[in-house]
């Protein structure tokens, strides 16, 4: 049964906000490999949620013994001041899960008191497990204030591919991102050992935002990461040969992590680049061809 919970009135710089209009939502998922005849199959074995954050039933477009596709749903469609989302997923030993979302997430302008929102994601992958974390893009509107954290904890022998795509402002409506404050933190660990730690602030009033040594005025950025490839150099070479040549993206590797970065102004270009890269890398990582989630085509 779905339980909707209201946040108690909070304080921020001496101001209060209307608790009845803000949500705390959380979801925790677990996936495990279960015997199925002479084979095994990944099943969603645990679901616990509170507030407007849930999942649809698992899908198996690659066959009953293939990857378990799950869509994370947030019916409000975006975050406003005071909202707090918590997402956790555990991918068990030798299981294979693909997590995505049905639509772009929206980060709305902060209220008159500047109260922030928060979103925290924790993903754990056990030995032999495979996680594909492929959410649709995040759209940050002018004046949005909040913090996003993503933590991925891998055991030795686990594999993972994922991306984060962020677009700032609404250029088509001539509403650029000229105010607000976003903080993103990313932690990728293997057996508790850091492989990649990153923290970035997006503040239009900071010199980094427009400086060529930083954001360079770009309104769209994307990062795709991969851990667990047998031939990292071969995968990088394939990406460089197959993806459209452009100064807006680059690919490299560091401490067992292959990283593809995009910095530009076209949300569709960033999405197409990441999707194509995933389609190229997935067979190398999982031994299976890419199976595009149906929700991306609607």
Fill in the keyword field for this structure.
single chain, 298 residues, mainly beta, eleven-stranded mixed sheet, seven-stranded mixed sheet, globular, disordered N terminus
Question: What can you see in these coordinates?
Answer:
The protein is globular and about 60 Å long. Helix 2 (232-242) runs antiparallel to helix 3 (267-286). Strand 3 (24-36) and strand 4 (39-50) form a beta hairpin. The strands form 3 sheets. Strands 5, 6, 7, 9, 10, 12, 13, 15, 18, 19 and 20 form an 11-stranded mixed beta sheet that branches. A 7-stranded mixed beta sheet has the order 4-3-8-11-14-16-17, with no helix packed on it. The chain has a two-stranded antiparallel ribbon with strand order 1-2. The longest helix is centred in the last third of the chain and has 20 residues, at 267-286. By secondary structure, it is mostly beta strands. The protein is built from 3 helices and 20 strands. It has a domain at 87-111 and 119-296. The protein has helices at 207-210, 232-242, 267-286; strands at 11-12, 15-16, 24-36, 39-50, 54-55, 68-73, 78-79, 84-91, 96-100, 105-107, 117-125, 130-134, 138-140, 145-154, 159-168, 181-190, 193-202, 220-227, 249-254, 257-264. UreD, UreF and UreG form a complex that acts as a GTP-hydrolysis-dependent molecular chaperone, activating the urease apoprotein by helping to assemble the nickel containing metallocenter of UreC. The UreE protein probably delivers the nickel. Pfam families: UreD (PF01774). One of its GO terms (molecular function) is nickel cation binding. Its main location: cytoplasm. This is Urease accessory protein UreD.
